Structures are given as structure tokens and as C-alpha cells.
Amino acid sequence: MTNPLKKLLNQLELIENKAVFFRNEEDGEVFNGFSSDILKKLDLIKPDAFYVFNSQPFILFFDLTSVFDKENENEIHKQVWSFDNSPIIFVIKDTEIKVYNALNFEKHKGLEEIKLSEKERNKKFSFWNLQSGETFEWFYEKHKKTVLKKRVNQQLFENIKQTIIILKDNFGLEESLAKILVLRLIFIRYLIDRKIKIDTSFIHGNEDDLILRRTGLSELISNPKLLVAFFDYLNKRFNGVLFKDSNIELSFHQANLLSKLFNPEGVSVEDKVNLFSDFDFQFDVFDFGIIPVELISGIYETLLDEETKNATSAVYTPPFLVDYILTQTVDKYFEENKSISDCKIFDPAMGSGIFLVQGLRRMIEREKELNPNDDNLTFGNKIRTIAERNLFGIDINEEAINVACFSIYVALLDYQEPGNIDIYKFPNLKDKNFFKAHFFDLSKKEVWNQIRIENVNFILGNPPWRNNDTPEHLDWLKQTKFDKIVSDKQIAQSYLIRVKDFVQDESKIALIVTSKVYYNDKAQKLKKYFLENNYITEIFDLSSVRHIVFENAKNPGSIIFFRVNINQKEENSQSIIKHISLKQNKYFNKYSKTLVIEKFDRKQIKQLHFIENKWMFKVALYGNTLDYLFMKRFENKSLDKFLDKNNIINGNGIKKGTPKHYFDFLIGLPIIQTSQIQENYTFIREDFPKLNKHDVYLEAGRELTLFKGKKIILGKRTKFETDLNISVIEDSCVYRDSANSITFNIDNESYISEIFGIFKSKFSTYFQYLTSANWGVYYPEINKSEYLSFPFIEPSEIQRNKLISLVDNLLKPYKEFYEQYPDSIFKGQPSIRILEEINSIVEEIYQITGYEKDLIDYVLNVSRYQFQESKQHLVSNFNDADHRNREHVLRKYAEVYIQEFKKIYDDEFIQVEIYPLNHFIALNFVFLDEKPEKLIIYPDRKSEKDVLKKLADNLSISQITDAKNTEHNLFIQKDIKGFEKNSFYIIKPNEYKCWHRSMAWYDVAEFKETIEESELNNINNNFDGF
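^ that's the sequence the OP posted. Answer follows.
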């Protein structure tokens, strides 16, 4: 390591805090936690050092002090851009240090430089700013306009699309042929850039001379007849996939133009303007030796036409989800079976084969580990056999199968030294392992029998998510009688059932399916069947991050891990499910897909709870154990029952839909649009339109009594995705089916204020957020049945009178305003004091005390913002001006400890030392013999080292920010706890959500459990028997 690199790393405090790793052992510690794929890419790119977080190389350092040449640096810029795993790089050339945005590359300029002074650089990239994620928040905010558009995958997709457009519009090729041609040329570039040997009569040059071989490809494209011959050659080598039917013969003019796009010297400025519509093609820049193979899946998705996409309901599977699923299945299998290097995988909706390709790579890595001394020939034969014996899949799209086969071949070649398509014999997978078939086509008995006899270890995949009325699916539903269970012909539900036909006793299944399977009211029969007939081991709920994970999918998604266990309800109900609910954080967001799962989002939940409680999936997504216990208090109570008992009617508004009947009784009534519903009180103005005979031909017109008289109107959509849309209307009016109402008559209208008052409470919002199927999952909506499921408890006469008085006073300003200004809209705010008093009465009615108030507050001030991308600051940031005031939050948190430990130790006192630092906060709980003057103090310690030393003698910064063990990293684990002789401590990031008072109840419970275990062990150790 040169002095300039060492000096920089010391300035950033990375060496002393053990947060930087090196390529060469003589320079420092080497990181062994990268995946084999990442490690292979880093070996090609050759950074001298890298900053690692969560096993990812976030920052690369290149020391060119003694080896600088301009071409070398240009190549580094191209390579790290194609790598797409490290957003930032440092290039050190003696005293000159430059920082670059590695996600934005311009062909004639290189990577975008991040211009900073030395002082700014050292602050922005300091150890603590890196660890806490503040560096990357700043980076992505500063570069958000380019990060989402200039990354290598977006640019590659755009280049492919533009090439297809030129081939179609300028060259006159049919679109289907244009797509096939581009796909073939891209895959040939994969072979070239991955240094695969190819017959030099087609592409000249040694495999190590990339520029010469890329030139050879450009020259080959310019020779139409030779290009066709080359396709025939590749077709024979690749067993008839991708290059079959080589009937694409270009004219010499077309071939000459296309060859310019693939010229390694790039397109000239003149040609760019005159021939290529001024589009900046970058095929000369892309490095397919580094661009991940799984990007083929993205390429395949890009080339699918809309009709095929709709037919297959194709949803691109993000590589990080594939990696997670394989880690939880194949990797664990190998951990349990130390001497085995293969396992059988079946993907029932294989698409372009990403699960099978990446699964094969894991098997090959395992084979290398078990037999490192095999020669190239032996090893090549073994891995071919592994592919032939272990990979199985089906898809209705033949082109997808071809792409999957080719991807497998590329993976096999990656492990050959050297890879040579003239020598290496590829496995025949098509129609032997991979089949073109509809998963629900019962007539394909030979295919299904062939897969069944393989006794697969794993069924993995991302099946379609939408309703499907293909004849095959409908016939399967009818023949199996699952049409009574599957709702709305949802094919994802059918996949969850159908996989049972392909399992052995030990087969494990992991499928990515729409989360609506768990939440949708219509899917309750399917949910019941599935939970009772399968042993679930894990649910990874992605609902709160659906826009981040699945960019083009409207529905939320989840991964479910299970094994089929038909008619074993009792055994299945006892399974302890690992439940993970991924949330946005500083590392996982729309810019960065680094999978950081925080402690509070990991839970262990008995399957029985999901069977017995309709709302359990939602509570698991946004709540925890205490929320579950709180919700159980209100079982068998509902507003619906109270309304029925008191003859209070309710219903949805009118629905235009497919008109069926005239509803003449509606003529002359004013109609209010849902968008016109005002907070708390809605006045029906004279200028509201009235329904005429043309307006009342409807699918559903409901009943007149629903629209007459006073009502509480309940908008389905929440306000700004955050607040319930509830209002009192005192006049007759009609509303749309995007709202519901509870309508009162003269005999029961006295109940309107108490029901409205309870609806306005914090508890009402809490309940709806933790039980409704869509809010925080899909659309922010509350259905009528969900409003009516609220556990209504009748107040006492005193409580009722108080509520009526408070509601009257709350609505009084509205009514007075409209009396004076009937044509205007009230713009005032409701009285906060009155709302708080209403809330206090509701807490009294429901006996909400202690930690339950904190649970409600957490949902209202944290959980309901976690799915809203624009409101993440409300989740994480402290704010001196409101309830997120840091000193107030920490004091309320600490008070829980003082209160709870006072109950246990009546002869000792506890004093809380609070250390609020810039990047983390530490609380030290010290036991004292005498009552201190102050129970909560702020000792004067400013540095991280001083604070850690105060907490424990052996506690160091590197111990709480361990790059090699995520369980010991404060910014992933979200807390570090420890015990000393007369004290214990907790350290958490400087984030509001971590220190909310509700978190204190969970933290105290953990400390209590540890203390009780320790005391019990001491008793046992000192016990000598009778």
C-alpha cells in the first residue's frame, strides 16, 4: 500500500476502525464474505481497497500512484460502471485524489466527478458518515437525476430498444426479426467479453485481445452471408437454441450500418447525427465480462412485446431476491449435506431462467470447493452433468426457454479455463429439462411425469400474479374443484396449490407471489386451505416496498417458503414461521437495493396465529408481539353488531359500472363526489349537481333510505395516504361507491356523535392501519367491512354525554361558518384540544393504558409513513419542533426502564446516563444503593471512543460496526446491548424510530429476560443439593 492511499484511508478513519479491506494480504486484511460472482468481478477490476457494508463493496479505491496511464484509468471507469455494485470510487494518483459517481458514465468524459474540497471529502466519507448511511443519502439525493437514468442496466436496455427501432424503421426488418437479431448479437458480445474461444474464421483474434475481437464482430456483421454462416455455426454448438432458423439476411447497406453500432471505436459524430438519429449508442463501452449474467433476464423482459407480457404476466425478478431465496434454500441444503454438490431445482414459471442459472452457479462453486484438484476436463464434465441432472423448468414462451438454455451455457463456460465452444459439449436441456408447456395443462402427462420422477429438492420461482382465464387454467380449476377456493381466477393462488403435484416428502418450496393472497378479503378460502395444508417456514413480506422491489408491478409481493403437508392441520399450525417485513431504510430504497433487514422487522410467529386471526399478516407486517396481544383484547366485538342492534343502516354509494336498472328514486337528490368530502363536516351546497333521469341508469343504485338524512360518510381512500377520510353530513345526498356511509333516522340519530367521536380517535386509526387489507400494502383504502369490523364498545352514559358534547363543539365552527358563508368551503383546522379530549374519553372506554398508548403512537407516527417514499424523514429524523424532539423522545424512552426496574429492585435505584452523539445514541443504566438527585443525566462526553469506554472497558468502535458479522453491526442490527458489573447499556442509531417509547417496552423485556436467566444460572451454580 502506497503512502497516498494509506494517508487517505487514515483521514477517513477507515483503517483504525477496521472498515476497509484490501485486495492483497500484504496491504491489510482481506474480506472473504463476498459472493463468488462479486469476487470474480473484483478480480477483473482490481481495486486496491474497498469499503464494505453488509457484505457489499460500496466504495472502491484505486491507487494509480506508481502505475498510472490514461488508458488504464479509462478502462477502470468503464469497468466499474459495468460492475454496478459500487456507487462511488476513489482514484489516487499521488497527491491528486478524485472521487467519482460510478453509476453515471459518459462515453467521451468517463465517470462523473464528484468535486469536493479535501475538508468536504474527508467529512462526507468519514467512517461514521459511511456507517450511518448519511454518505449514501447525500450521494443519492445529490445525483438522483442521473442515478436512475444513467446506470448501466438502464443504458443497456435503452441501447437495445433504440437498435430495434432502427432495424425496424430504418432497415425495414420485421420487429420480431429485429429483436431476435439484437438478442443474438448481445449474446455474442457476452462470449467475446467473457474470453470464450470462438472459431477465428468468423471472429479473428486471441481471446485476451478484446478490442481486436470486438472489431472482428463488427466486421462479421458487415458481411451478411458470413454472419448467417456464423449463426449456423453457433446453432450447432449451442444445441439449437437462440441461433436456430438463421433466415435473417441483411442487405450490404443494412449490414454496414449495423456494424457501426458494434464498432469498438464507437459511432462517429457524423454517423451519430446522420444515420442514428443523434442517439448516443454505447455498445463500445459495455463490458459484458462484468455486466451480470442475470441482466439477460432484464434484456429478455425488454424484448417481450406487450401481448406476450400480458399473456405471461411476466414480472422481472430482481437479482437480490433470487440471491436471498437461494441462500435460504440451496445454501442451507449444502450446509446440512457437507459432501454433496448438487440438488434438483424445478422452476414452474422459469422465464429466462434466473433461478436455475444462479442455482447452477452455487452447485458449481460447491463442486469446486469439494474437488479443488480436478483437471479442467474432469471438472467440465462434472458441471455439465450437474446441469443435466438438476435443472428443470417450464414456460409457455419458447423464446424464454432458449434464453434460459443459453444463460446456462454461458454459466458453464464461465467455469472453463479456457472456455471453448468448439471443444466443450453443452448439455441438451431443451425438451429434456426445460419444456414449453402451460403449468395447468393436464394433457401434458409425459412432461409432468418426467418432472415428478426427478423427486426435486426445491421448487423455486416467481409465477405470474394476475387473473388468468386461459382454457388450461380454467379446466384445471374445474377438474380439481379448486375453483371453489381460488378467487377471481388468480393464477398465483393456483400455483401455490398446484406445486403439491411435484413434491417428495422433503421437497421445499419458495415462491414469489402477490401479497394479496394473504390480505384480500376474497382470498380467505385460499388462505385457509393453504395455511392448513402446508408447513410454512418463512414469509418475507415485501408489501411496504412494492414500488422499490417491483418497478413495473402494481401488486405487492411476498416470498413464501413452505413444504406441502396435506391434511396435517395440527402439525402445520405449530410451525414457528420466520416472518420478515422489509422496510425502506438508508440502504434499501429506490436508488440502492442493498438488502438490509432491521431487527424489528424480524419476528417468530406460530402458524396457528395466522390461521386463527384474519388480521395477523397485517399485524406481522407493521406491528409486533404487543400489538398482537392488544388486538386480541377486542375479539368478537364489532361496530357492525352494534348497528344491527340499533337498526342503523350502512352501505356503499351508487355504482355506474355496467348499467342494469333505472333507479328513479334518486332523481332530484344532490350528488357529492368523494373528492368533495371535507374533513370532519361536509356541507351540501346549493351548487352541488342534482341527479336527473340520465344519471340514474346504474349497475347499483342502493336504497333511498341510505341517502336520506344524517350520516357519517366514510371515504374508502385515505387522505394523503395517512388519515382516515371521515365526515358528518346532515343533509340528504347521494355519494359514489368510492365511499360508504352509516345513515341514521330520527329514532337513532342520537348515536351519530358517539360513533363519529370514536372514529376520530387515535385508536380507530391504529386499528384500521393494522387490520385493513390495502392501506400500507396496496392502495391506501379502507373497505366498508373493515370500517364495520372496528371493535365498538358502548360508552357509559357519562362517557357518551362527554363525547356528544365534545363532538358538538368540534363541529360547531364548521356549522357556524356555513350558516354565514353557504357557498364557500371551510378552511379552518379542527381544535387539537378537543380532539385530544375525545381521544382521552376513547382511551377510557377501551381501557387503553401504559404500553398500549405507545403502540398506538408508534403506528401513527412511524408505521403509517414507512410505505410512503416521500415521508421517510418522519420515520427517521428527530425534529426539535414537534413530537420528534430528541431530548423529549429519549426521556420518554428512559422513563420506561426506570418505571419497570423499580418494580423488580425495590432496594436499588437506577440512574440513566444519556449520550446523544451525531451518529448513535447510547444509554447507560447504572444501579445505585442510594436514590440519585436526578434519575436521568447527560454526562459530558463528546467522542464515540470516550462513550464506549465509559459503557464497557473492552468495547471498541470496530466491535459495534463489524463489517464481517452483520449481527454485530449497529446500523444493521439496530441495537447493541451489554452488561457490566453494576450497569447495562444499549446503543442504537440516531434515528427517531429506534428510540420511540414503544421500542423501550421490547428492549426492557429483553434485558429482563437476560437478567432473570443470569440470576437463575447463578442459583443453579451455587446449589449443592440437599
